[in-house]
Amino acid sequence: MILWTFRHTKPYNPNDVCYGQLDFDVSPTFPEESSSAIEDFLKSGAKPTRLYSSPLLRCLRLAEEVSKATGLAIEKVDSLKEINFGTWEGQKLSAVPRAEMTGWMQDLRGFQFPQGESFYDVDKRVEAFLDTLPDNGEFLWVTHAGVIAALQHFACGVPDQDFVEGKFSYALVSRFEFTRNAEGHYRGSFTKIHDGIQMPPLPIG
Predict the structure, then answer these.
(1) CA-CA distance, 118 to 163, in Å (whole number)?
(2) Residue 122 and which of 92, 132, 148, 161 are 20 to 30 A apart at CA?
(3) 162 phi/psi in degrees, rounded to 5
(4) pTM for the complete prediction?
(5) What is the bridge-based pairing of β-strands 50-53 and 138-143?
Protein backbone atom coordinates (compact mmCIF):
# COMPACT_ATOMS: atom_id res chain seq x y z
CA MET A 1 0.00 0.00 0.00
CA ILE A 2 1.20 3.50 -0.84
CA LEU A 3 0.32 6.46 1.38
CA TRP A 4 1.14 10.08 0.55
CA THR A 5 0.97 12.65 3.32
CA PHE A 6 0.83 16.45 3.21
CA ARG A 7 1.42 18.42 6.35
CA HIS A 8 -0.63 21.62 6.45
CA THR A 9 0.98 24.93 5.53
CA LYS A 10 2.01 27.53 8.11
CA PRO A 11 -0.97 28.43 10.33
CA TYR A 12 -1.91 31.95 11.28
CA ASN A 13 -0.76 32.10 14.91
CA PRO A 14 0.20 35.75 15.59
CA ASN A 15 0.30 35.25 19.37
CA ASP A 16 2.62 32.23 19.07
CA VAL A 17 0.56 30.00 21.33
CA CYS A 18 0.46 26.22 21.66
CA TYR A 19 -2.00 24.73 19.20
CA GLY A 20 -3.07 21.20 18.46
CA GLN A 21 -6.78 21.02 17.86
CA LEU A 22 -7.27 24.80 17.95
CA ASP A 23 -8.76 25.58 14.56
CA PHE A 24 -6.37 28.16 13.11
CA ASP A 25 -6.61 29.38 9.52
CA VAL A 26 -3.60 29.53 7.19
CA SER A 27 -0.99 32.30 6.95
CA PRO A 28 -0.71 34.78 4.07
CA THR A 29 2.10 32.64 2.64
CA PHE A 30 -0.43 29.91 1.85
CA PRO A 31 -0.59 30.35 -1.97
CA GLU A 32 3.12 29.82 -2.55
CA GLU A 33 3.49 27.15 0.13
CA SER A 34 0.61 25.08 -1.20
CA SER A 35 1.41 25.47 -4.91
CA SER A 36 5.05 24.40 -4.56
CA ALA A 37 4.10 21.36 -2.46
CA ILE A 38 1.39 20.27 -4.89
CA GLU A 39 3.71 20.79 -7.84
CA ASP A 40 6.35 18.46 -6.38
CA PHE A 41 3.65 15.95 -5.46
CA LEU A 42 2.31 15.87 -9.02
CA LYS A 43 5.83 15.47 -10.42
CA SER A 44 6.40 12.42 -8.20
CA GLY A 45 4.08 10.18 -10.22
CA ALA A 46 1.55 9.79 -7.41
CA LYS A 47 -1.79 8.22 -8.33
CA PRO A 48 -3.93 8.20 -5.17
CA THR A 49 -7.55 7.16 -5.50
CA ARG A 50 -8.87 8.69 -2.27
CA LEU A 51 -8.13 11.93 -0.45
CA TYR A 52 -8.54 12.06 3.33
CA SER A 53 -8.15 15.20 5.41
CA SER A 54 -8.18 16.31 8.99
CA PRO A 55 -11.32 18.42 9.48
CA LEU A 56 -9.29 21.29 10.95
CA LEU A 57 -9.27 24.40 8.77
CA ARG A 58 -5.53 24.61 8.18
CA CYS A 59 -5.69 21.16 6.58
CA LEU A 60 -8.95 21.68 4.71
CA ARG A 61 -7.56 24.77 2.99
CA LEU A 62 -4.72 22.68 1.58
CA ALA A 63 -6.96 19.70 0.87
CA GLU A 64 -9.18 21.94 -1.27
CA GLU A 65 -6.19 22.84 -3.45
CA VAL A 66 -5.07 19.21 -3.63
CA SER A 67 -8.62 18.23 -4.59
CA LYS A 68 -8.58 20.73 -7.47
CA ALA A 69 -5.24 19.37 -8.68
CA THR A 70 -6.18 15.67 -8.45
CA GLY A 71 -9.94 15.63 -9.00
CA LEU A 72 -10.41 13.66 -5.78
CA ALA A 73 -13.20 14.42 -3.34
CA ILE A 74 -12.22 15.35 0.22
CA GLU A 75 -13.15 12.85 2.93
CA LYS A 76 -12.86 14.32 6.45
CA VAL A 77 -11.49 11.97 9.11
CA ASP A 78 -11.31 12.88 12.81
CA SER A 79 -8.49 10.38 13.35
CA LEU A 80 -6.23 12.63 11.27
CA LYS A 81 -6.55 15.59 13.68
CA GLU A 82 -3.50 16.91 15.49
CA ILE A 83 -2.86 15.91 19.09
CA ASN A 84 -5.14 17.46 21.70
CA PHE A 85 -2.84 19.46 23.98
CA GLY A 86 -5.60 19.82 26.58
CA THR A 87 -5.04 22.72 28.98
CA TRP A 88 -1.96 23.79 27.02
CA GLU A 89 -4.06 24.74 23.99
CA GLY A 90 -3.95 28.49 23.40
CA GLN A 91 -1.19 29.10 25.96
CA LYS A 92 2.32 30.28 25.36
CA LEU A 93 4.73 27.52 26.33
CA SER A 94 6.40 29.95 28.70
CA ALA A 95 3.10 30.12 30.64
CA VAL A 96 2.76 26.34 31.09
CA PRO A 97 3.26 25.26 34.74
CA ARG A 98 6.89 24.33 35.26
CA ALA A 99 6.09 20.90 36.69
CA GLU A 100 4.05 20.02 33.60
CA MET A 101 6.80 21.20 31.26
CA THR A 102 9.34 19.14 33.21
CA GLY A 103 7.08 16.10 32.95
CA TRP A 104 6.86 16.51 29.20
CA MET A 105 10.61 17.00 28.78
CA GLN A 106 11.18 13.74 30.64
CA ASP A 107 8.83 11.77 28.36
CA LEU A 108 8.18 13.67 25.13
CA ARG A 109 5.96 11.08 23.47
CA GLY A 110 4.45 9.42 26.54
CA PHE A 111 3.47 12.49 28.55
CA GLN A 112 -0.30 12.89 28.95
CA PHE A 113 -1.18 16.54 28.40
CA PRO A 114 -3.66 17.59 31.12
CA GLN A 115 -7.22 17.00 29.85
CA GLY A 116 -5.71 16.03 26.48
CA GLU A 117 -3.81 13.23 24.75
CA SER A 118 -0.30 11.82 24.69
CA PHE A 119 1.51 11.19 21.43
CA TYR A 120 0.99 7.47 22.10
CA ASP A 121 -2.75 8.16 21.97
CA VAL A 122 -2.23 9.69 18.53
CA ASP A 123 -0.29 6.58 17.47
CA LYS A 124 -3.25 4.41 18.43
CA ARG A 125 -5.94 6.35 16.59
CA VAL A 126 -3.78 6.81 13.50
CA GLU A 127 -2.89 3.10 13.38
CA ALA A 128 -6.54 2.13 13.81
CA PHE A 129 -7.51 4.21 10.77
CA LEU A 130 -4.48 3.17 8.72
CA ASP A 131 -5.34 -0.50 9.22
CA THR A 132 -8.77 0.03 7.61
CA LEU A 133 -7.18 0.90 4.24
CA PRO A 134 -6.89 -1.90 1.66
CA ASP A 135 -3.52 -3.49 1.00
CA ASN A 136 -3.27 -2.74 -2.70
CA GLY A 137 -4.45 0.89 -2.64
CA GLU A 138 -2.79 4.28 -3.00
CA PHE A 139 -4.06 7.02 -0.71
CA LEU A 140 -3.44 10.63 0.28
CA TRP A 141 -3.75 12.26 3.69
CA VAL A 142 -3.69 16.00 4.42
CA THR A 143 -2.87 16.14 8.10
CA HIS A 144 -0.59 17.35 10.90
CA ALA A 145 2.92 16.86 12.24
CA GLY A 146 1.74 14.66 15.10
CA VAL A 147 -0.03 12.28 12.73
CA ILE A 148 2.87 12.06 10.26
CA ALA A 149 5.28 11.54 13.14
CA ALA A 150 3.05 8.76 14.45
CA LEU A 151 3.42 6.95 11.13
CA GLN A 152 7.20 7.33 11.29
CA HIS A 153 7.33 6.04 14.86
CA PHE A 154 4.89 3.12 15.07
CA ALA A 155 5.03 1.99 11.44
CA CYS A 156 8.56 2.87 10.29
CA GLY A 157 10.67 2.30 13.39
CA VAL A 158 11.80 5.84 14.20
CA PRO A 159 12.78 5.62 17.91
CA ASP A 160 10.83 7.59 20.51
CA GLN A 161 13.92 9.52 21.56
CA ASP A 162 14.02 11.12 18.09
CA PHE A 163 11.19 13.61 18.60
CA VAL A 164 10.42 14.27 14.93
CA GLU A 165 7.13 16.06 15.74
CA GLY A 166 9.07 19.27 16.28
CA LYS A 167 11.31 18.97 13.23
CA PHE A 168 8.90 18.90 10.27
CA SER A 169 8.53 21.76 7.84
CA TYR A 170 5.15 23.23 6.96
CA ALA A 171 3.80 21.78 3.67
CA LEU A 172 6.03 18.71 4.04
CA VAL A 173 5.08 15.99 1.54
CA SER A 174 6.06 12.37 2.23
CA ARG A 175 5.59 8.99 0.59
CA PHE A 176 5.07 5.88 2.74
CA GLU A 177 5.19 2.32 1.43
CA PHE A 178 3.56 -0.30 3.67
CA THR A 179 2.90 -4.03 3.87
CA ARG A 180 1.00 -5.81 6.66
CA ASN A 181 2.88 -7.73 9.31
CA ALA A 182 1.77 -11.01 10.90
CA GLU A 183 -0.49 -9.10 13.31
CA GLY A 184 -2.25 -7.33 10.44
CA HIS A 185 -0.66 -3.91 11.03
CA TYR A 186 1.03 -1.88 8.31
CA ARG A 187 4.79 -1.47 8.59
CA GLY A 188 7.24 0.00 6.09
CA SER A 189 9.38 2.99 5.15
CA PHE A 190 9.05 6.59 4.05
CA THR A 191 10.66 9.15 1.75
CA LYS A 192 10.45 12.93 1.86
CA ILE A 193 9.12 14.36 -1.42
CA HIS A 194 8.89 18.09 -0.63
CA ASP A 195 10.25 20.33 2.10
CA GLY A 196 8.44 23.56 2.83
CA ILE A 197 8.95 26.33 5.41
CA GLN A 198 10.96 25.09 8.38
CA MET A 199 9.37 25.46 11.81
CA PRO A 200 11.24 27.50 14.40
CA PRO A 201 12.68 25.46 17.26
CA LEU A 202 10.18 24.75 20.04
CA PRO A 203 10.83 27.10 22.99
CA ILE A 204 11.07 24.30 25.52
CA GLY A 205 13.46 23.37 28.26
Answers:
(1) 13
(2) 92
(3) -95, 95
(4) 0.95
(5) parallel
